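LAB NOTEBOOK - FOLDING QUEUE
OPERATOR: T.R.
BATCH SIZE: 2
PURPOSE: Compare the predicted structure-token outputs for two unrelated chains run back to back under identical settings.
PRIORITY: normal
REVIEWER: second-year student, initials M.K.

ITEM 1
FIELD SEQUENCE / FIELD STRUCTURE:
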Amino acid sequence: MQKAYRLAQRSDFNKVYKYGKSTANRQFVLYVLKNEEVEHFRLGISVSKKIGKAVVRNRMRRLLKEIVRNLAPRIAPHHDMVIVVRKAALDLNFDEMVKSVIHVCNRASILKKEE
């Protein structure tokens, strides 16, 4: 994921948590906040220590970044997003994880319609 597409500052995460809308399914929580200052979307991923040790948390982060990278053309611009991983996501294979992320993005109405 390119640097311009990342949320990195703690203050950015806190702003999205505080003022953004949240949607969830069993595996992920998605916080979305409209941000007109950026011309694309920015993504942050949060994986708690409750999920597992560093190897597991980093793997979840890598998988989510790849899923969002593939979905990038369909994601509406001018949004800051934070994806919070829940314990149930550990049981999914990659294809199920893609479907789950698409589902939570559709619930948040940030995916453009496919042509």
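ITEM 2
FIELD SEQUENCE / FIELD STRUCTURE:
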Amino acid sequence: MRSYQELEVWKSAMDLVLQVYHLTEPLPPTETYGLRAQMRRAALSIPSNIAEGWGSGARRRYVHMLKVARGSLMELETQGILAARLGYISPEALEDLLETTRHITRMLNRLIHVLTRP
């Protein structure tokens, strides 16, 4: 591959960013700088860290950044669960979000495994 943009995990993470932006749009104005901003930041962090790791040119740094991206996925899941508990998003929307984050987590885990095996 010549670019991180060819990675399926990066493409899926970019789709997740769009999903989160649409999901958080209807949140109340009181969450403009709260949960909405946090969820969007966490989502955007995922493909950004994948790209940054790729660009580092060092395998160890790349794996580290993939793990950071995985951490951002867990952060986003937590924020989504809170948004659902607060009644800001529907249980169905939460399940869609969690399904997507789990899928991306599996892809990241596989990539990390491939990069770290001897």
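REVIEWER COMMENT (ITEM 2): The radius of gyration is 15 Å.
FOLLOW-UP: none requested
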